[in-house]
Design brief:
- Helix content is 59%, strand content 9%.
- The chain has ten helices and four strands, in the order βααβααααβαβααα.
- It has a four-stranded parallel sheet with strand order 2-1-3-4.
Length: 171
Amino acid sequence: MMEMAVTNAGPLMVLSKLNLLHLLRQNYTEVRFPRAVYEECITNGIRYGYEDAQVLRLFLYYNQWKADEVPEIIPAVRNENLDQGEKEAISIAYYQKSILLMDEEKGRNTARSLHIPVLGSLGILIKSYRNRLIDKDQLSLYFDTISRRRDIWISPKLCKFLLEKELYIKI
């Protein structure tokens, strides 16, 4: 069963860099994101000349996915040491009672403390594998690519651990 998700900047940037944004559309009926995430990923990304920001902008445009306004930052995250996009994404996920897509560990822990289910970029890839949207070789390739790229800040050790756990093999 497909569900709605709320995303922070990290998964959007990772999937954009890997040209895998279509996995969001294939795994979720709708993906929402706050204005602060749009500003971080697209407005600032384009300003700094990041090609993946243009890719993401076009993907959002063609899928007619627009930034959400946040009714109110929930009190539990208002004073947390998180960036604005993280606070807004957690708040939207909380209000919408949906899964939160986020890579940043402090934000993930904050969301979990509010009983918000969380999945990161690697989790989205694993979900895609389990849903047979990608095969074992593609999953291995994407994890290897993530662990080698300097512009994706996900631990190579975490990539190796999760891939071995998912595929039940020693890599």
